[in-house]
Design a protein that fits this description.
This protein is an alpha/beta fold. Helices cover 42% and strands 20% of the residues.
Length: 273
């Protein structure tokens, strides 16, 4: 059983960092079938890899699944972000069926044209204060590690999953202002180019907002939220939780197996009156 989509957009995988949810991502990629796959930046965390090499087998599994999709006919495009900006020197080249592009335009099934870009060039912290950005990234990684430990303990106590970074983003006024400014800058750029909207990543906050001016879509990340932006055959766009979708498929599969098992059980003979 495969999840069928016209297009899948994923961003901020951060392969090469300990915070990457590589096992979950590999499972998701294994279960999808699509015409196009866009890797919308920060696929590789070259900042982390330069400091210390970290590349477990699960990260290889993600790469293997991406290459397998490309081999089976999916058109795969990789748009480098700030964490894998070194890959921009390979723009125009193709590796294992994966083409490296600086940005691109995607046309949906219903005819809308969307700018696809990582979005880091619209982040003043990244473009004008790289050291602040690097320190912020380092702090974010430690926050994710601490949050993982907190949720592991909470799970044993029956508590719900809690994201400290998402809490901070939604509650701190400056963070909310930053996110709003980022979204507005990307939407303005799409309108300036005469396009109908934008697909991006970078800020690790999934969003699908339709508007008459310019639609704004953010893929989210595979560090905490484990989200993907998908397009259906009618052009409808939706943010999905990859882990939840896989768990739902597993539950359906278990239910089908149980139904088949029940149907094969011999009928119990009726007792004589």
């Amino acid at each position: 059983m495969k999840l069928e989509y016209r297009t899948v957009f994923i961003s901020d995988l951060h392969l090469g960092s300990r915070s990457c949810r590589a096992r979950d991502l590999a499972r998701f990629l294994k279960k999808i079938r699509c015409q196009r796959l866009y890797l919308v930046g920060d696929v590789l965390d070259m900042w982390r890899l330069r400091q210390r090499w970290y590349w477990p087998a699960s990260h290889n599994d993600v790469v293997r699944q991406i290459l397998r999709l490309a081999k089976r006919g999916t058109r795969v495009q990789f748009i480098p972000g700030n964490h894998d900006g070194a890959a921009r020197q390979y723009v125009g080249m193709k590796f294992g069926g994966v083409r490296v592009v600086p940005h691109t335009t995607h046309t949906t099934a219903d005819g809308r044209r969307l700018l696809v870009t990582h979005g880091d060039q619209f982040d003043l912290v990244v473009t004008h204060a790289r050291m602040v950005s690097v320190l912020g990234s380092w702090a974010y990684d430690w926050l994710v590690v601490a949050n993982t430990l907190l949720n592991a303990a909470g799970k044993r106590l029956g508590l719900r999953h809690f994201s400290m970074s998402q809490y901070i983003k939604l509650k701190v006024k400056k963070a909310c202002t930053y996110i709003g400014d980022f979204e507005n800058a990307l939407s303005h750029e799409a309108k300036r180019k005469g396009l109908d909207g934008v697909v991006c990543g970078h800020i690790h906050k999934a969003e699908a907002r339709e508007s008459p001016g310019a639609a704004y879509y953010n893929c989210g990340d595979w560090v905490e939220s484990c989200t993907a932006l998908v397009e259906y055959d009618d052009g409808k766009m939706q943010v999905i939780n990859g882990i939840a979708v896989i768990e739902q498929m597993r539950a359906q599969k278990r239910a089908m197996k149980e139904a088949i098992r029940q149907s094969r059980r011999p009928a119990v003979p009726q007792a004589a009156a």
